[in-house]
Amino acid sequence: SIIVHYGMQRRSPLPAHLSFTEPLMIPSRLILLPCAALLLAGAASTQVLPDRAALGGNQNSTLIETFETYNIGAGLAEPTNVTVLNSSTVANGQGPGLVLGGCTYSASGINLYWNGQGYYGMPSKNIEADGLLTLSYSPPVTVTGLELHAFQGYPDSTIVRVYNGSGGLIYTSSPIAVPGPSPVFFGYSAASIGSVTIQSQTYSWSTL
After folding, report:
1. Distance of alpha carbon 107 from alpha carbon 6, whole angstroms
2. Distance, CA of 104 to CA of 4 (rounded, Å)
3. Sign of dihedral through CA atoms 163, 165, 167, 170?
4. What angle do CA 65, 66, 67 make, to 5 degrees?
5. Omega before residue 155 within 30° of 0, cis
6. Residue 155 burial by CB count (10 A; 0-12/13-18/19+): exposed, middle or buried?
7. 164 bridge partner residues
8. Cα 158 to Cα 202: distance, rounded to the nearest angstrom
9. How far is 162 from 197, CA to CA, in rounded Å?
10. Cα dist. 55→18, 40, 178 in Å?
11. Which of 69, 120, 125, 171 could be a cystine partner for 151, CB 3.0 to 4.6 Å?
12. Strand 126-129's sheet: what is its strand order?
C-alpha cells in the first residue's frame, strides 16, 4: 500500500504560496497517500477494491511505501525543493533511497512537501504536492492501494484517476471524502496500471 505524508518550520494549514483559488492535498496532500501506498505485482481483474484487506487476494508480491526514510521532526513539515521524487532523488541533502524503487511521485506545481508524524494530526510521515500528485509505476503494476489523509481541521474531497501502462485513462473516481487524519482507503486492480493521480477538489495541494 502506498502511504504518503510530510515538515522544517511549522506552517499554517495554508502555506503562504498557496490559496484556495490555486489548484492538493493539504490534509490530504498525497499521503500517497501514510497516506501509504501499496504496490502489488500479480494477476488482477479490473475492479475497485473495497478495503485494504481486499489486496491480500490480489498480490503475489507487495511493496509498501511508508515515507519514513526522510529525516523530519515530529510535528514539522518542509518543502523538498523538488517536483519529482523517486529512489534516486536527493532532496535537501538527503537521499538517494528516500523512497522505494518502482514508483515516481511528481507534483504539477512548484514543490513536493514532506510532513512529519503529528503535523496537523498526521499518524505518520507522508508527502503532498502542490497541485496534482502523480504516482508513476515502472514497470506497470496490477494492483495499487492508497491510504488518503487530510490535515486535522481541513476535511478534503479528492478524485483519483487510474491510467494503464500506455497512458490511457481507465478509471475516474467520484469525489472521495477524506474527513481528517484517519486513513481513507482507495484500491484498484487491472491488467496494467501505469500511473495514478490524486487531485484535491478543495485545496490547491494534493490530498495526502
Report:
1. 14
2. 12
3. negative
4. 100
5. no
6. middle
7. none
8. 8
9. 7
10. 35, 8, 21
11. 120
12. 77-79, 112-115, 126-129
Question: What single letter denotes the amino acid at residue 84?
Answer: V
Residues, the chain, total?
208
Cα-flanking dihedrals φ and ψ of residue 54, to 5°? -70, -15
Query: What's the CA angle centered on 78, arms 156 and 134, to 5 degrees?
Result: 50
Query: What residue has cell string 502523480?
Result: 134
Q: What is the pLDDT of residues 48-71, one digit of tens each?
A: 998 888 876 554 457 889 999 999
pTM beyond 0.85, yes or no? no
Query: Cα–Cα distance between 128 and 45 in angstroms, integer?
Result: 29
Tens-digit pLDDT profile for residues 103-133: 999 999 999 999 999 999 999 999 999 999 9
Cα-based distances in Å from 166 to 45, 81, 118, 170, 193 = 17, 29, 38, 10, 9
**Secondary structure (DSSP) of 82-143:** -SEE-TT--BTTB-S-SS-TTEEEEESSS-EEEE-TTGGG-SS-EEEEBS-EEEEEEEEEEE
179: left (phi over 0), alpha (psi -120 to 50) or beta: alpha
Q: Determine whether 45 is exposed, middle or buried from the number of CB atoms within 10 Å of its CB (0-12, 13-18, 19+).
A: exposed
Q: Residue 150 has which C-alpha cell?
A: 487530510
Residue 115 has a CB neighbour count (10 Å cut-off) of: 33
